[in-house]
Known about the structure:
By secondary structure, this protein is mostly helical.
Amino acid sequence: MNLMEKAFAFVKDFFASDYSGHDYFHTLRVFHTATRIAIKEKADLQIVQLAALLHDVDDRKLSPQTCAEKTNARRFLTENQIPPATIERICQIIGEISFADSVIPDSLEGKCVQDADRLDAIGAIGIARAFAYGGSHNRLLHHPDIKPKLHMTKEEYRNSNSTTINHFYEKLFLLADRMNTPTAKEIAQSRDRYMRAYVAEFLAQWDGID
Ligand code: ADP
Ligand code: NI
């Protein structure tokens, strides 16, 4: 197996039992979207592809004990003889991409991967992931009396027990404006439009005025 094949096998095995929205196919989609963005933006493809494949293996929710050190990503990269400086670049990118931390990545490669991860949270796929997440966390689809809370702190965001419809206002509708690269900004436009039309339709049907 070459390096990329090994990386695919590693993440496939790692995410074998996750149903919370961080499954192998999320990683695969981020890989493909990040590759597409990186080619257009002329970023270093190997860095982008490895960072995309490894971006969730030390996620705070899935692997809290390895999150700070990026132990899982580091182990894979070290075992595959990736030079230490490259490992540092990749781990920096992985650390930068989480939304709750709202960091703008330093490197073009980091920007590509963060954009790809955010693109997977919006549009048709994003809608499905939001409701899947809500279901797995016992959240209501919608509650007319529970209003969205904007400008939450990191802690409030993490502990919030809002509805899934509110998640669109609290996070998903904000993402199109936060894309780093022109390529991702363009892809985000139609995904954002589709998602807003979906929520408008949802609320109209909720109120019986569709
Ligand atoms: P990231 O992939 O940036 O770590 P998260 O772990 O926050 O993102 O979210 C993973 C998926 O679950 C995303 O599609 C996101 O929109 C969705 N999600 C996260 N929090 C909520 C929530 N409170 N309600 C509904 N969906 C959520
Ligand atoms: Ni992700």
